[in-house]
Design brief:
Blueprint (H helix, E strand, L loop, with lengths): L2 E5 L4 H7 L1 H9 L4 E6 L15 E4 L5 H12 L3 E7 L4 H8 L2 E8 L15 E3 L7 H12 L14 H13 L9 E4 L11 H10 L3 E5 L8 H6 L5 E3 L5 H13 L3 E5 L2 H8 L3 E5 L5 H4 L4 E6 L29 E4 L7 H8 L3
Parallel strand pairs: 1-2, 1-4, 2-3, 4-5, 5-6, 7-8, 7-10, 8-9, 10-11, 11-12
Antiparallel strand pairs: 12-13
Helix pairs in contact: 1-5, 1-10, 2-5, 6-9, 9-10
Length: 348
C-alpha cells in the first residue's frame, strides 16, 4: 500500500477540477492512502468525498507559523509520492515539508511559476494544452501508469439537499422541475457575465435563479430585478456546502447552471449539474470545465484571451459583451472518455 500526498491549495474551481486525480488513482489502486493539503476555506467541498483518507489544512497567509504548523501536521507520515497539482513555489515547497520518496509535478510549461520545478524530483511532460483536469490525470499516470481519466463528483448529503430545496421553495421555485442557476459575480471582475446576457437568460430559461456568494454582497436585489432576475438565492460566508447541494438538486431536476468561468460555476457542475460557461478574458482550452459547454464570442476581440483579472482595454470588457446568439461552443480538448468517466464518478 502506498501513501500519496496531494497538494492543491487554490483556487476553488481549479481544486475541483484537480480532484479527478483521486478518482483516477482509486480506479486502479484502491488500497492506496491519499492525503490532500488545501486551504481551509475549500475544505467543506471535501465533505463526503470518497477516496481522500485525510485532509490537511494550510492557511497560506499564515506566514512562518502556518508553515511550521503544516510541517507538524505532516511529520507523522512518510509518503511514497507527492503530487504537486498546482505548480507554483508554495505548492512545491509544501511537498518539501513532508518526508516523501518522490516529488512529482508538471514540467515548466504547465506551471504557474516555472522555476518552482527545482523543488521537485520528477517532472511530467505533456503536449496538450495546460489544464488542471488534464494535469491531474498526467500526474496520476506518473505513479500509476494504468490510471484512467476520471472526473470528480462532489457529494451532498440528503439533509443538505433537503434544506436547499426548502429554501428554493420559499422563493417560489419548484426544485423538482428543471430550473436554472445563473451565477452572478461582481461587475468589476472581467470574467463576470454582463447585463445583456443576464436579461436574455432570464427570458429564455426555466425558473431562473440568480445565485450570489459572499463576494457579491454589494449587488442589490433591485439591480437584479431590473435585469429580469426576480428570484435571488444568496450564499453567505461559511455556506459553501449549500453550493454543492444546489448543484446536486440541479442535476436531479435536469436543470442547468449558466455562468462565467469562476469557482461557483465549477462547483455546481462538479456536484451534478449540466450547464453553459461563457469565457472572455479566460482561455477555455486551459480552464473549461469538462462537463460544461464552453462558449466564447463568435467574433472575439484581438486581446482575447488575455487571462488577466483587470481589463486594460480602453473600450472596457468587450470580450464579454455579447448575447446568446453571438457565441459559439469551443470543443473540449480533454480526453474523449470524459463523459463516461463522469457517469462512473456519480457512483463514487
Amino acid at each position: 500500500m502506498s501513501e500519496v500526498l496531494l497538494v492543491r491549495l487554490s483556487a476553488m474551481g481549479d481544486l475541483v477540477q484537480s480532484l479527478g486525480v483521486v478518482a483516477s488513482l482509486r480506479a486502479v489502486r484502491p488500497d492506496w492512502r491519499l492525503t490532500l493539503v488545501t486551504q481551509p476555506e475549500w475544505s467543506p467541498l471535501l465533505e463526503g468525498f470518497v477516496g481522500v483518507q485525510r485532509v490537511v489544512l494550510f492557511g497560506r497567509r499564515g506566514g512562518l507559523g502556518g508553515l511550521l504548523a503544516l510541517r507538524r501536521a505532516l511529520a507523522g507520515q512518510r509518503f511514497d509520492h507527492a503530487l504537486d497539482l498546482q505548480g507554483n513555489w508554495k505548492s512545491a515547497f509544501v511537498t518539501r515539508l513532508a518526508r516523501v520518496g518522490q516529488r512529482v509535478g508538471m514540467c515548466a510549461g504547465w506551471r504557474q511559476e516555472p522555476a518552482s520545478r527545482v523543488l521537485l524530483d520528477r517532472l511530467v511532460t505533456c503536449a496538450a494544452d495546460p489544464h488542471p483536469a488534464r494535469a491531474a490525470w498526467e500526474l496520476a499516470k506518473a505513479i500509476a501508469p494504468d490510471a484512467p481519466f476520471r472526473l470528480a463528483r462532489l457529494v451532498a448529503s440528503d439533509a443538505e439537499r433537503s434544506s436547499e430545496a426548502a429554501r428554493l421553495r420559499d422563493l417560489g421555485v419548484d426544485p423538482a422541475r428543471p430550473f436554472t442557476a445563473i451565477v452572478v459575480t461582481a461587475g468589476s471582475d472581467p470574467r463576470a457575465l454582463r447585463p445583456r446576457l443576464f436579461g436574455e437568460l432570464a427570458r429564455s430559461v426555466p425558473q431562473p435563479v440568480a445565485v450570489l456568494g459572499p463576494a457579491e454582497a454589494a449587488v442589490g436585489d433591485g439591480d437584479l430585478r431590473d435585469l429580469g432576475l426576480r428570484v435571488v438565492l444568496r450564499h453567505r460566508v461559511g455556506e459553501l456546502r449549500r453550493l454543492v447541494a444546489l448543484g446536486a438538486l440541479l442535476g436531479a431536476a435536469a436543470g442547468e447552471v449558466a455562468g462565467p468561468d469562476q469557482g461557483a460555476t465549477h462547483v455546481l457542475l462538479a456536484a451534478g449539474a449540466r450547464g453553459r460557461v461563457w469565457f472572455g478574458s479566460q482561455d477555455p482550452r486551459r480552464t473549461a470545465p469538462p462537463l460544461g459547454a464552453a462558449l466564447v464570442r463568435r467574433d472575439p476581440p484581438a486581446c482575447q484571451p488575455c487571462r488577466e483579472r483587470r481589463c486594460a482595454n480602453p473600450g472596457g470588457v468587450v470580450c464579454m459583451d455579447f448575447g446568446l446568439d453571438d457565441t459559439v461552443v469551443v470543443p473540449s480538448r480533454l480526453p474523449a472518455d470524459s463523459v463516461a468517466s463522469a457517469d462512473e464518478g456519480r457512483a463514487l
